Give the backbone structure.
Amino acid sequence: MDTNQIVVTDDQGNEHALEVLFTFNSDETGKKYVLYFDPKEEQPTVFASSFDDEGQLYEVESPEEWEMIEEVFQSFVAQDEGGCGCHNHGDGECDCSGDGECGCHDGEDHECCCGDDGECCH
């Protein structure tokens, strides 16, 4: 997926040129994913598929995959809006140590948007 546009064929055999939002690789599933949308729609829906090296699209297979894709998408949206990529605490408070982990006020560690300087993006 080196282009900003893909062609998707619907159930009726109609081809649609859709815009690629972004692609990513998952170490967890060993798959590559593409998120895309129809730029002609006023309120576009974002679609997701896995794809192979030839660009063939495949349906997402499990609820766990959908959950992982949703997390990646939410991080993308948050970064695009200039917000924090950490969604585990609604107040946006991060206690970053500079190692990419966030030590929250509730004592749980999880991935956060901490920069290399140990500062949160808020």
